[in-house]
Known about the structure:
alpha/beta; Rossmann fold; 2 domains; 7-stranded parallel beta sheet; 7 strands; 49% helix; globular; binds nicotinamide-adenine-dinucleotide
Amino acid sequence: MDIEVSRRITATRGMLDDKVALITGSTSGIGLGVARSFASAGASVVLNGFGNSQEINDTLEGLQRATGSRVAYSAADMARPDEIADMVNLAIETFGRLDIVVNNAGIFHVGPIDQVPVEKWNAVLGINLSSAFHTIRLALPAMRQQGGGRIINIASALALVGAPLTSAYAAAKHGIVGLTKVVALETAEDNITCNALCPGNVWTPLAEAHIAEQVKTHGLPREQVIRNILLAEQPNKRFAVVEEIGAFATFLASDAAASITGAALPVDGGWTAH
Ligand code: NAD
């Protein structure tokens, strides 16, 4: 994407002034893109995720320097409810409130259902789905007390349609759309919205790992794997960039999106229009 288009996408200054946002799985990829967009729009942000501690420190410092927003970090493992509780408490204790939760942390597993290891199924469901249940149940009291909030669940095109070899991932992502609808209904009169954002292919380290895996599985050149396998179902034949997801999440987190709730919103280049 050229720099001018990228600049226009990220021109959201002031949209989230005085808001506090917690983004799970934000040391990389889409989560980091969302954190950057939120911080650029004025929000204080709590990052979370795994990685090298020096790189995480550099990310936090860079984000603070580039945006002037306040940043904090939680190393909580999204597979562990006790650590998720510590993370939500850290956000509230550090910044005094919690306005926006983005459930983004996720892992992927590819393989036929009869060969999915049980522990892999449990891990995919735990990190992609149950973690969102925990952040939501733990954040809602603060949101209700403050008089409002925004919950954004990063789902997938595979939350809306199936694809072979993705049983655990597609089940978790379809599940998060159900969770989104129920939370939206339960919070509809509380000035809280809850939506699922459903990306197609997005250029991130997770996508890179998936490409490498597919190159190995199919023994095909990288370009062929990208166009004919990964983008086979995606009519626009391009990966989205994380700034696009960040900009949409910023809009959903803003006052302008107060009436959008309970929706599963595709950002998938037409994938689910088939
Ligand atoms: P990524 O691998 O680049 O980033 C994942 C993030 O989650 C990292 O920060 C990682 O440290 C964190 N994480 C993983 N396990 C964790 C755990 N147990 N506890 C805490 N943090 C953990 O992935 P990405 O491509 O940016 O994906 C982010 C989300 O977007 C996922 O939910 C994924 O399913 C979804 N998604 C991605 C794509 C895509 O094409 N990249 C498409 C649709 C949906």
